[in-house]
Amino acid sequence: MTPELIVLCLAALLQVGQIALYSVAGQAQAGTKAALKPRDQKIELTGKAGRIHRAMNNHFEALPLFAIAALVTAHAGSTGFTVAMAWLYLLARILYIPAYVFGWVPWRSFIWLAGLVATTLMLLAALI
What we know:
This protein is mainly alpha-helical. Helix content is 83%, strand content 0%.
């Protein structure tokens, strides 16, 4: 398995961790009774629980693009540059969670951008 695919696997596990964190935070705020009900009515989480939810959703948006980049670079040929960009993506996604939850302004935006730039550079490297 290429290093980019290893990072992709770790990024997917990070998403599982974010789902667990969201579940714990959501139940702590809304209660187990609300968590067990059907989702006919949306449960609005606020504060840290809401930010955890939004950070999780942000990774759901970023992960498919990174997955494409990891798969394409694995097929095109792994390089030191693409491996470094894959690790940068993962580091950015890990740092994004506390940056979002604790409101690290403007660092949250820079951290998010680092992950997007790393993914974009991986895609461009695969084309060159």
